[in-house]
Amino acid sequence: MLIRRVTIAILLIAASAAAASFPPINYRHRTLANGLEVYSIEDHATPTVAINVWYRVGSKNDPEGRSGFAHLFEHIMFKATAHMKSEMLDRLTEDVGGMNNAYTHPDRTVYYEVIPSNYLQTLLWAEGDRMGALTVDEANFKSERDVVKEEYRFRVLAPSYGRFNNSLSKDSYAVHPYKRPGIGSIENLDASTLADVQAFHSTYYRPDNAVLIVAGDFDPKQFDTWVDRYLGSVPKPTTEIPRVTVKEPARTEEKHFAEHGANVPLPAVGLTWLIPPAQSDDTEALQVASTILSDGDSSRLYQSLVYKKQLAQSANANADTREDTGLFTVTAVMAGGKKPEDGIAALRQEIDALGAKAVTSAELDKAKNLIITGALRERETNDGKASALGEAITQFHDAAYVNRGLERLQAVTAADVQRVVKKYLVDAKAVVITYTQEAK
Amino acid sequence: MKATFLTAAALSLALHPAIAQVETTPPPPAAPRQLQIPKPVEKTLSNGLRVIVIEKKGVPLVAARLLIKNGGEADPANLAGLADTTASLLTKGTTTKSAEEIARGIEALGATLDTGAGWDESSADVSVMSSKLPQALGFLADVVRHPTFKQEEIDRLRQQNVDALSVAMKQPGRLASFVMAHAIFGTTRYGHYLGGTPESLTRIKRDDIVDFHNEYYRPSNAILILGGDIAPAQAFAIAQERFGGWKGAPEVARVLARANEFPSPHVIVVDMPAAGQAAVVAGRPGLRRADPAYYLSLVTNSILGGGYSSRLNEEIRIKRGLSYGAGSSFDLRRDVGPFTATVQTKNESAGEVAGLVVDELNKLGTTPVEDAELGPRKAVLIGGFGRQLETNAGIVGRIGTLALYGLSLDEINRYISGVQGITAADIQKFAAAHLGGNDASIVIVGDAKKFLPTLQQRFKNVEVIPIDELDVNSPTLRKAK
User: Fold this and answer.
1) Which of A137, A207, A385, B160 would staple A34 via disulfide (CB 3.0–4.6 Å)?
2) Minimal CA–CA distance to B83: which of B212, B206, B221?
3) What is the C-alpha to C-alpha distance for residues B126 and B137, in angstroms, rounded to an integer?
4) Which domain holds residue A364?
């Protein structure tokens, strides 16, 4: 028996006097008997539909000694399934004028397609099929593993700052599996087997660990029928879904790391701090802090490090909130001839300043306007709307957050920003990373 | 393990009768729905500025783009990077506002303002909430009309660009594309670097920048395109208010001395022993944007290297696991732009990959494409076109390109039929004339000792330039001894 629950969110975001009113995302929701969560956003502006399947499994679930496996598995999901041969998903999307892709996050793996809307039924069948079973063979597995090794070289080895980006999580977490790089390593990728693939699928790729989100041009009744038929029929296993329970302890001392890369003409520096899980009440204030620090040419890091002091080639801040303990990072690539220690000191100075004195209302409003305009830009497309909703569901455990989050953002005060900067950054312990050219 | 897994699945099949309904083949599509193509409307202000508006309701945002119809192609021979430097400095101070005031003002609106130069155009782009368009266009007009080009800002930008180039020169892919520009264009107008080199940037003086701005930043040499949630009448009124008083300096005809002979093809290896991966690029002169073979070039490239299931990616990634991605493109410009095919692969495979690329280039000219392949590759283009029209920036970009090259804006309504009209015979003839792999230059940047023997088995006259001897300013690409 199907339990049907329909939620329609009609929330008009009342923006601050300075900002425009914000059109909410209206969605429908129901939970199938096999546990699959289904969300849909109807919009007939274009004859396309975006399909997202969000699995609650990410790089943090990489098996021991198999760093990079969740991501390798994501690639394998485009190979043979019960009723599709390898690359058939491309035939059903790309070949008819659609597209498909996927990404692996520390907390989740997301598969998405944008297709002409008359192919919705076809693709719901395909998503149900690959949720049901994979039948990839050894040759295809090995060939795709080689592709992922090339991706590793492309992302980590070839670019000057690939290893630096990898080191941010690696050096920042003491015990949480977030410390392992999602892209893995050549050795760990080589160690993975076809048996690992089947075990991973049966453990995590199941309806009660997935969220289906469809946005665009469809008929809701027809959609419900197809979802029941193709996804409602995927069996729900009786086994437990293993979850990561490790908790990252608070830092007790500042730690310094010296990292190196092969082609590093300008050194880079980074400072990181631990921040609470995305669901924390402090998330929006941390987002505002990171926007004030580094969004645009009027941002504090750009004005100070890049423009006035000319210490850095670029400088960035990021509030990387996750399902579990996240990271606040500030990084800079030094300008030619400038010393990394001066970059670190200047980054600290900006963090301290943000903790010492409340921001002006003009600076606060600027940050909110930038975040809201960015969110609007994301919502221009069906895929962007589906993606915003998926993030609310998986990171914030609340679909309504897709609208409520922007209300919460509007409510952030200057005192909130100052408080979270003091609490999580100024009064906490940093990890400090210096990245330079390795000895030849 | 696999067998065990399948048994478990079979068991659950039996327990869930619902599954019996599931088809083993995909359900067919329903009837397609028609794509709505946006309708541009335009008017020309009395000062000659062409204003184009495309209204698109929905999200309360507008994208605005001001195009100047000259870019890097107008860089004097020894001043590579002049157009880009000029455009980048627009936001760094005007007669009434400092760089910081401009940044703070535009960002207070939640807007972005980006300026830069392409090969044939210089541009200033704004993305903003509809309700704040008048103020944002005020900033756009100010930076285009009244930049001051302070020496302090010129010096700061130069240092930043020189630093950025020092990083770019260490990336195999970036360096390969620099060297390929040399290989394809020599000393013709697209043969230098859009962003300049450390040496050319040092030669650019304030007077060069002021002259470039006076000469090209004129209302009669500009186009303003606005797309999004804005009524045309309102958009025209705002454009009139912000740009109506723009006069610009009187026009002077400048003739740039340029070679017009392309170099003959060659194979160049830049030996970078520390490269984490090799970049392999094949390239040759392609087409002008206004060439009647425009649609032919699109469909041909879609088969060869446009999109995931194109032949290059199929052969190199999907079949052989040799790369994370292989692709190609025609960069269509006012004059003949480049065709390039690009792949990154582990150093050991670079020679094999170069051979595979050349084989695919040759094959298109010798063997006709089957309908079963042609139809899907056209669908890729038509679908991509539709997705581009979903965003304001996409619409403004597409209409802006038509306007820049003096093509009819109505061309946007002919895109789908233009693509659909191409036949397999057209493609074979076109590919034989424009894509023959034996006439392409090859550039590889990587750890040469790992691939040179394989490469030399296939290609004769491979020129190897050690990274320490490379000089991207020199026509020979080598430092003077």
Assistant:
1) A207
2) B212
3) 8
4) 255-437
Q: Give pLDDT tens digits for A92-102.
A: 999 999 999 99
On the CB side of A84, how many CA atoms lie within 13 Å of its CA? 27
| pLDDT higher than threshold 60 for residue B302 | yes
Residues B60, A297: C-beta atoms closer than 8 Å: no
Residue B364 is which amino acid? L
Q: Name the residue facing B61 among A128, A371, A377 (closest C-beta).
A: A377
Residues of chain B with C-beta less than 8 angstroms from the C-beta of A142? 321
ipTM (interface predicted TM): 0.92
Nearest-angstrom CA–CA distance, B246 and B240: 10
Mutation site for A-interface testing, chosen from B33, B34, B175, B272 by largest number of A Cβ within 10 Å: B33
* Partner-chain contact B309 A229, CB within 8 Å: no
Between chains, do B109 and A265 touch, taking CB under 8 Å as contact? no
- Please tell me the distance from the alpha carbon of residue A88 to that of residue A80, in angstroms, as a whole number: 8
Instruction: Please state the domain count of chain A.
Output: 2
Taking alpha carbons only, the member of B21, B443, B39 closest to residue B268 is: B443
The tokens describing B258, both together, are 């340029």
pLDDT, tens digit, 9 for 90 and up, residues B4-24: 322 333 333 333 434 445 688
User: Are A162 and A301 in the same domain?
Assistant: no
Mind telling me how many Å the CA of B2 is from chain A's nearest CA? 6
- Whether residue A380 and residue B127 make contact (CB cut-off 8 A), yes or no, is no
Pair (B319, B401) in one structural domain: yes
Bridge partners, residue B267, by sequence: B442, B462
Nearest to B21 among A117, A233, A370 (CB): A233
* CA nearest to B303 within chain A: A95
Domain extent for B95? 40-243
Q: Is residue A104 part of a domain?
A: yes
Give the whole-angstrom CA distance, residue B278 versus residue B350: 6
Q: What is the pTM of this model?
A: 0.93
pLDDT at B3 over 60: no
CA distances from B435 to B265, B283, B418 (A): 13, 9, 21
Give me the pLDDT at residue B257, please.
Answer: 63
